[in-house]
Amino acid sequence: MGILILYMTSHGCAEKAAKTLKEMLNDEVVLINLKRDSEPDLAAYDTMIIGGSIHAGRIQGRIKKFCERNASLLLEKKLGLFLCCMEEGEKAQKQFEDAFSAELRDHATAMGLFGGEFNFERMNFLEKKIVKKVAKVSESVFKINKKAIDKFASAF
């Protein structure tokens, strides 16, 4: 039984983090992007890592619903949780807590905040306008934290 990294990404940040994590793990790893791939047979994996990114202050709804729908099964697995976000410190921690239930966080072997990105090349016009106004950013910003990903991988 290998490791399943199940994630969702809108502009590629969580996908970059998942691929980096896959490279750091020395086991058989399967990547599933819930935005484009169907849900796999979860019984086939003894270890699962779930991650997503923050948009408008929240993790993608599909990730949240997946965790709620499969909570009892996830609690039987070795579990890791990660989040990509541009916030730091207490704000990032709050977003993490809002993204994943206390029950899953308490069960997780590893949890990580992997930084984030504002990738203007992958945003539509409205998303760019919102980021420019709210985050006061006018060009792409890439802040993926590879040390945090390495620390997460070491916990496995």
Description:
With 156 residues, the protein is an alpha/beta fold. It has a single domain, classed as Flavodoxin domain (Rossmann fold), CATH 3.40.50. The protein is 39% helix and 28% strand. The protein contains seven helices and eight strands, in the order βαβββααβααββαβα. The protein has helices at residues 13-24, 61-69, 71-74, 89-99, 102-107, 125-134, 146-154; strands at 2-7, 29-33, 45-55, 58-59, 78-84, 110-113, 115-118, 141-144. Strands 1, 2, 3, 4, 5 and 6 form a six-stranded mixed sheet that branches. Strands 7-8 form a two-stranded antiparallel ribbon. A hairpin with a 2-residue loop joins β3 and β4 (58-59). The model has no long low-confidence stretch (mean pLDDT 89).
The level of helicity is 25-40%
Number of strands: 8
List unreliable stretches of 5+ residues. none
Give the distance, in angstroms, between the N- and C-terminal Cα atoms. Answer: 14 Å
Topology order in helix (H) and strand (E) letters: EHEEEHHEHHEEHEH
Q: What is the top-level CATH class?
A: Alpha Beta
The figure for the number of domains is 1
CATH-assigned homologous superfamily = Flavodoxin domain
What is the number of helical segments per DSSP (H or I, 4+ residues)?
A: 7
**Whole-number mean pLDDT:** 89
Find the structural class using helix and strand composition.
alpha/beta
Second rung of CATH, namely the architecture: 3-Layer(aba) Sandwich
What is the fold named in CATH at topology level?
Answer: Rossmann fold
CA radius of gyration: 15 Å
Sheet with most strands: 6 strands, mixed
How large is the share of residues in beta strands?
A: 25-35%
Spatial shape = globular
